[in-house]
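Q: I have 333 residues here and want to know how they pack in 3D. Can you give me a structure?
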Amino acid sequence: MQPGAVPPWVRVQAKQLLAQQGHAWLLHGPSGLGQYRLALELARAWLCETPSESGACGQCPSCHAIDVRTHADLCVLMPETTLLELGWPLSEKAQADIDDKKRKASREIRVDAMRDAIEFSQRTSARGRGKVVLVYPAEQMNAITANALLKTLEEPPGDVRFVLATESSHQLLPTIRSRCLGHAMVWPEPAAALSWLVDQGVDAATAKGHWMAAGGRPDDVLRLLSSGRSAEDWQRFPAAMAAGNASAVRDWAIPELVDALQKLCHDALCIQQQAEPRFFALKAPAPGKGPSLESLSRWSVALKKQRITMEHPFNAGLMQEALVEQAQRALNS
């Protein structure tokens, strides 16, 4: 993902939301549609010194401060791994703990970071344009962290605004969702999205080759490209899983493999129900052939459970073999 390159369909959505009132927005939808980009555009416009109907000016000191990750009135709440990935600084204490190898960067939004954000919301604005708390991905708040946010979200002090962005809104507490204005992310037109990807330096043929693998989600195309997977690797994946070929995914991280298997299971279920697949160019089996609905349904449930623990420090090789064996059984029964 390239955070600075804002797609035109995200700019359109930002303009629509800026024309509305509200102290807390929840941006939701599947991965790859630009939730983080839209959240940052809203924050940039709210804090801009010379904003327009279209959003932030991009030139003022406030906009520059956001670009260099030093704005005193913007609090970014993310897992520490996401902060590092997107170029945001960690707190001094968190950075010291990680540098001293006292712990690893957290994959959840830590409750102490939430408490710092609540304290931030109660301070006076440094630049006089209000304050913004940006939470992404919001589903990475655990129950304790989310509960710490509730009262402040319901009764925000002073001139603070919240923007929460999520790729799994169903994982959020209902009380969090009810305190925000919701916005479902817009799916871009394929031609516009592919043109934008080319503008970002992606080869046109490569972008098209990864388009189906990403499910038509532009940011997921960029993620696939960064993983080093080719379009050919992706299209060979179903046959490798049906054959139980674990060597084909030996260099895949467990989260990457679980995600690919869920997409394969989704498409197999679509084929079984005579619907079009989304992620793989699968062909319908001959009548009476192919996996059963019962087998695929059991596999889907198992993959959902495995997604919960896929970040745990299991033996990667053994986990890969178990996942591939499970896929082979489901696809051949």
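Q: Anything worth noting?
A: The CA atoms of residues 213 and 279 lie 5 Å apart. The first helix runs from residue 8 to 18.
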